[in-house]
Amino acid sequence: MYHGFFLMKALLEAMQPGDKDWPLAQAIDPERLPAHIAIIMDGNGRWAKQRTLPRVAGHRAGINAVRTSVETCARLGIKVLTLYAFSVENWKRPRAEVETLWRLLQHYLKQELPELQKNDVRLQPIGRLEALPAPVRRELETTAEATASNRGMLLNLAINYGGRAEIVDAFNGILEMARLDGSIGTLKIDEETISASLYTASCPDPDLLIRTSGEMRLSNFLLWQIAYAELYITETLWPDFSRADLLQAVLDYQKRDRRYGGLGETRARDAVDAVKQHARNILEALRPT
User: Is 18 inside any structural domain?
Assistant: First the structure.
């Protein structure tokens, strides 16, 4: 509890009372923060089109939203932030656009390393990284190694990532391990085995999944992990996604009653209270007059 209040204090100290997002930050309950936030960063192309700019201008502008989201989540006390940066399907885009994305990623990693260190953020790239261009892999490895000893928020950067591909890789990894240790004949796979073999094995499942640009689909992102995640869709295009937008998403999350297939805390309390009241009514009716 004290850790949450300390981080909330740090967030408020980074803001000004006159900021439009100041009331949002004050309204957040530091004891009910999502442990893991995942974001589908969508809308860069539309943002650029609205301004009659090339698509790459939207990707450049989106870097500011990445910086804001990482810093805000770190100061808020979020344990894990996963950003969907490049999917396995994105290779279908024009070659010039893809190559520009790689250059922007390398620029981001070099430019933001001091800020990652300052905010005690640990970077972990996830996805089929072996398919990335060698310079991009080296930059990712350099940044991951430089931040490996940080103990604050874990930043998962999903690159050449696909939810189905992750599950396929998890099963192939399980089978290969069983083949190597000789247990293939008695192998039994359960949910825990699969979860432990995913790219995100060291992380809690996402509590909150945010998608920008108003699209109502998951786009093959964390398909196994988001089974019980709360979904938050905003019409805001990614380059315009601000600290206020992120805080609003967290506030919306805190208003929800998470049930995981059961009654949830609020409904469970209501049900218990109803049973107790019913029992009191019966006893009252049986009481001698």
Answer: no
User: What is the residue range of 49's domain?
Assistant: 34-256
Question: One-letter amino acid identity for 265?
Answer: E
The predicted-structure confidence for 126-180, as pLDDT tens digits, reads as follows 999 999 999 999 999 999 999 999 999 999 999 999 999 999 999 999 999 999 9
Q: For residue 192, what are its two tokens?
A: 């825990």
Q: What is the CATH number of the domain that holds 214?
A: 3.40.1180.10
Q: Which of 64, 90, 150, 220 is catalytic?
A: 90
90 given a catalytic annotation: yes
Judge contact between 224 and 166, C-beta under 8 A.
yes
- Give per-residue pLDDT as tens, 126-139: 999 999 999 999 99
Q: What is the tally of structural domains in the chain? A: 2
The answer to whether 65 and 240 are in contact (CB under 8 A) is yes
Known catalytic residue at 44: no
- CA angle in degrees (0–180, nearest 5) for 221-4-77: 30
Please name the amino acid found at residue 132.
L
| 243-258 per-position pLDDT tens digit | 999 999 999 999 998 8
Helix (H) or strand (E) holding 278: helix 264-286
The verdict on 88 and 61 lying in the same domain is yes
Q: Which of 19, 21, 29, 42 is catalytic?
A: 42
Q: Using CA atoms, how far apart are residues 162 and 149, in angstroms rounded to an integer? A: 28
d(CA 124, CA 139): 12
